[in-house]
């Protein structure tokens, strides 16, 4: 918005938070100020890419303002039922692929897929019900823990931590946490603090939902199975392919962006895994994030699309949210020392 104002010769000042936009437009002697309240948006990389190209076209005077407004209105199309079903399937595929990243066995992968399917369905219901959307992280945590515990009666011993975390990985606010820290580092204090507070609240809801689910499972006499042996190395390739396809569907990216998404997901996973084995998990995640971020920005400049198209799916294998989830889960189980560590 600021860039468009500069290119069109209009004096503008903006203040943006996750739930409001304040705009002052016009000369300092006689500005017009607007405040627009809005709910936090949902991720849609296809629309974000279209908006990026729209901004470029308006800035280069290839579109009139009237044409740009008409194109902007065309982006407000609701999801059709077919896309809602694809989103539910995307949750299941992403959860199953993530279970492989966590070194889960066949039982853990199957349980994660079922959890992803259930949470995907809950997510679609939440998009139609404002009341459910408010408590979705907590309800999803409860459902994930119950399904993981009950799955042991069908597929045998399951190390429940893996399917629960894998099934919840899309809801864990790792992106919001990453963006919040970035905003605070760039002195956008109001937006960064608000986004950080929202991320912490989501973490708390998920952790307490899982804790309640674990208590209910324990009353049924079902205990978590042992941690499985690491899956064969060849399974990582198919998991990265499936994860890339699922991310393309879940984040509503264009099909032509799939190669870039696969590239950044593969780089972040491989670099973080190699770095963790060589230097420890902290350095490994740092290495994976740096390589993925650098390549994503280069690809974005080359293909002229927002860097988020490649960065957002690339965050998933780094799993920064997994650490936060285990923190609150440990605190909920009164394991304070582990939580603080």
How would you describe what is shown here?
It is a single chain. The chain has 341 residues and is mainly α. Helix content is 70%, strand content 5%. The chain is built from 16 helices and 3 strands. It has helices at residues 2-8, 45-59, 65-74, 81-101, 106-128, 130-150, 152-155, 161-168, 174-185, 189-219, 236-250, 258-279, 281-303, 308-315, 320-332, 336-340, and strands spanning 12-17, 20-25, 32-37. The protein has a 3-stranded antiparallel β-sheet. A hairpin with a 2-residue loop joins β1 (12-17) and β2 (20-25). α4 packs antiparallel against α5 (106-128). The longest helix has 31 residues, at 189-219. The radius of gyration is 21 Å and the shape is globular. The two termini are 42 Å apart. The relative contact order is 0.11. The mean pLDDT is 86.
Produce the secondary structure layout.
Layout: H1 2-8, E1 12-17, E2 20-25, E3 32-37, H2 45-59, H3 65-74, H4 81-101, H5 106-128, H6 130-150, H7 152-155, H8 161-168, H9 174-185, H10 189-219, H11 236-250, H12 258-279, H13 281-303, H14 308-315, H15 320-332, H16 336-340
Pick out its properties:
341 residues; mainly alpha; 16 helices; 70% helix
Query: How do the strands of the widest beta sheet line up side by side?
Result: 1-2-3
Largest beta sheet, briefly?
A: 3 strands, antiparallel
How many strands appear in the DSSP assignment? 3
Broad shape: globular
Q: What is the subunit arrangement here?
A: single chain
- N-to-C order of helices and strands: HEEEHHHHHHHHHHHHHHH
Mean of residue pLDDT values: 86
Content of β-strand: 5-15%
The rounded distance between the terminal residues' Cα atoms is 42 Å
Structural class: mainly alpha
Radius of gyration: 21 Å
- The low-confidence runs, each spanning 5 or more residues with pLDDT under 50, are none
The percent range for helix content is: 55-70%
Number of helices: 16
């Amino acid at each position: 918005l600021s860039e468009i104002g500069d290119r069109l010769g209009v004096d503008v000042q903006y203040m943006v938070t996750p739930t409001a936009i304040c705009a002052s437009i016009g000369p300092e002697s006689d500005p017009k100020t607007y405040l627009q309240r809005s709910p936090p948006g949902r991720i849609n990389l296809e629309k974000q890419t279209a908006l990026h190209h729209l901004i470029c076209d308006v800035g280069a005077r290839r579109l009139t303002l009237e044409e740009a407004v008409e194109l902007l209105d065309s982006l407000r199309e609701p999801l059709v039922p077919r896309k809602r079903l694809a989103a539910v399937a995307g949750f299941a595929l992403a959860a199953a692929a993530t279970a492989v990243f966590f070194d889960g066995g066949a039982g853990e992968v199957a349980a994660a897929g079922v959890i992803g399917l259930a949470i995907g369905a809950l997510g679609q219901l939440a998009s139609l019900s404002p009341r459910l959307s408010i408590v979705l992280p907590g309800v999803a945590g409860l459902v994930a823990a119950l399904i993981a515990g009950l799955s042991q009666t069908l597929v045998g011993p399951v190390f429940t931590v893996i399917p629960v975390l894998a099934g919840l990985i899309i809801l864990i606010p790792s992106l919001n946490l990453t963006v919040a820290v970035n905003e605070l580092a760039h002195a956008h204090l109001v937006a960064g603090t608000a986004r950080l507070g929202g991320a912490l609240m989501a973490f708390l809801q998920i952790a307490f939902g899982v804790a309640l689910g674990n208590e209910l499972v324990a009353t049924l006499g079902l205990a978590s199975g042992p941690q499985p042996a690491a899956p064969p190395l060849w399974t990582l390739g198919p998991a990265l392919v499936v994860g890339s396809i699922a991310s393309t569907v879940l984040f509503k990216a264009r099909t032509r962006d799939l190669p870039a998404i696969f590239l950044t997901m593969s780089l972040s996973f491989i670099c973080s895994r190699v770095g963790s084995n060589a230097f420890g998990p902290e350095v490994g995640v740092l290495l994976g994030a740096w390589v993925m971020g650098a390549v994503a920005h280069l690809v974005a400049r080359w293909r002229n699309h927002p860097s988020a198209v490649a960065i957002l799916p690339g965050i998933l294998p780094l799993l920064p949210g997994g650490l936060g989830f285990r923190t609150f889960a440990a605190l909920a189980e009164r394991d304070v020392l582990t939580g603080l560590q």
